[in-house]
Each structure stands twice: as structure tokens, then as C-alpha cells.
Amino acid sequence: MTMIRRRRYSRIGLVLGGGAARGWAHIGAIRALHDAGIKPDVVCGTSIGALVGAVYANGDLDWLEEWVARLTWQTVVRLLDLRISGGLLGGRKVIQLFADKFNGRSIGQLNLPFAAVATELDTGREIWLQEGSTIDSVRASIAIPGIFTPVWHNGVWLVDGGLSNPVPVSVARGMRADCVIAVDLNNDILNGRDFGGGVVETPSLDPGAPPPVALRRNGKPWPRWLAPADASSTDDVRVAPAPSARVPSMLSSIAQSIDIMQVRISRSRLAGEPADILIQPRLGGMGIFDFHRAAPAIEEGRAAVEYMLPAIRARLGME
């Protein structure tokens, strides 16, 4: 294993940003860091970054990678329980799966110091969850408004941490990390849409072919608002769907709005609170509900770290 000689840094912090399904890229990023002999001393995350970070801090990354590799679109929809109160999806089934894995462990019982970021719904205040139930903290951090139901915690309603701090570098600093490696999932997600620019059109592989229809187990198609955003997408996460003149579905409108919000907030926070090393996987074309496309996301996370390894080695003084 490569040995690390640190010149100035005694405590490396790993920051895992939010981005829903794009968060599977965190698995590849962590793998690549470990392969290079880099193991963080503290880990913190927002939304899906909190989920992956908690699993990693619990020593269960192998289990998570094996589980996400088996996900299909149908499996994802079955795990996200539909409801009409507080949010479209309750997420009860998938949260129970992770609750069973954490087995009642508190944050203090994890193998690494860990923190999850959530947002207080009434005030917009950023909340750092560093103690108490691991699963409750993760559940609060992933409560995307309008999608997942808010979480009642210590007398307040909490929602997704991405509303206040999508890439929580400040949290790692607060955990006394003197070198912060951050993974930002949002840099490439608007597929050429820039603030004030146009749209970069990406032709489909076969423009004349109709997209395949995703079917439920009863043989009926999914409702348009719940169907996969791009049923014809390939495994390449960089391929963006061609723009359409159709009115966007409710879910795709919400998803795109969340993407825009995440990009704006991430850029603002990172400008004021920069990481020592910023890793930005190229995940354009991968939607927030594409949990079934884990393989390309994981590979892109690994590739992004490998691209940055010379800078990481120089920063850490690796021989």
C-alpha cells in the first residue's frame, strides 16, 4: 500500500455532496481514494452524501455497492412508497432497509466521526446532525421537499440539507479537518444549460426509434409523472436527453428545479468555503431518480478521483 507522508495535515475530512441518485458516484470516489492509500479521518455529507457517508462510516460500503448493483427501475419504484401527505414519496421501505443495516447504532458508535446536514423547514437554518440515531439523521438529510416527507426532530421539521449546504465543507472544518476533500455531484448536471446561455442539444443514438415503454408488474405503463425521465438513456451518464417541446411532467419539473437549485447553492457555498481538493464527477444526463444506473455513476466517481490524484498527492505530500 502507498504510504502517506503528511507535511501539514493531521486530520483529513471527506465531504460527500447531495445529488440523489448521482450519489452512487461517491462509492467509486471512496474506492479510488482507498486504492491510493488515502483514508479520511472524518466524513460528513448532505442528502445522498449523508446516506453513503453513514454507510461508509459504519464499515458497510461493500454491502452498499453490491445492493445498488442489483437495483432496477421497477425495484426503485417499489421501494419508494407513494403517498399524498407531506411529499410524493414516503421512502419508508428503503429507509427500513438501511435502518436494519445500521441496527440501532448512534452516530457516536460508527467507525468514523460523522455528521449529516439537514435544513430546518420553518427558518431555513442549517442543522448539523452529529449525535443521536444514525438512521434518523440520514432520513432528515435526504428529505427532498415535495418528494420525501419532512422529519420531526427535536421539536422542528427538518428537510434536505441541500437547501442550505449541498457540499458541506464548513461541516468538515467544524469537525477539525485541516485538509478537506470534497465531492461535488452538481457541477455537470444541467447538460449544457447555463445561467443565461442556451441549451446544448445532444442527439439520441437512434432518433427515429420510439423509446421503450417501462411497464409495471401488472403489465400497465407507469403514470407519466412517475415514469423514468429518459427510458432510452444508455449507461453513459454524460449523455443528455434531447430537449422536448412537450410540457414536462410534474416529477421531471420538480427534479429539474432541484437540479438548478443545487447548482446555484453549491457554486455559491464553494466559492466562499472552498475545499482543499474538489472532485467533480461528470454526471450530466443522469437524473435524480436514476438509482438503477449505479454502475456508470460509480465508475465516474472513481475516474474523477483518479484524474485529481496528482493534485491530491501534492497536497498531502505523498511520496
UniProtKB/TrEMBL annotation:
Active site (UniProt): 47 (nucleophile), 160 (proton acceptor)
Motif window: DGA/G: 160-162
PNPLA domain span: 14-173
GO biological process: lipid catabolic process
Motif (GXSXG): 45-49
GO molecular function, one term: hydrolase activity
InterPro entries registered for this protein in UniProt: Acyl_Trfase/lysoPLipase (IPR016035), NTE (IPR050301), PNPLA_dom (IPR002641)
Gene3D superfamilies in UniProt: Cytosolic phospholipase A2 catalytic domain
Record key words, sorted: Hydrolase, Lipid degradation, Lipid metabolism
PANTHER family recorded: NEUROPATHY TARGET ESTERASE/SWISS CHEESE D.MELANOGASTER (PTHR14226), NTE FAMILY PROTEIN RSSA (PTHR14226:SF76)
Protein name: Putative NTE family protein
Organism: Paraburkholderia fynbosensis
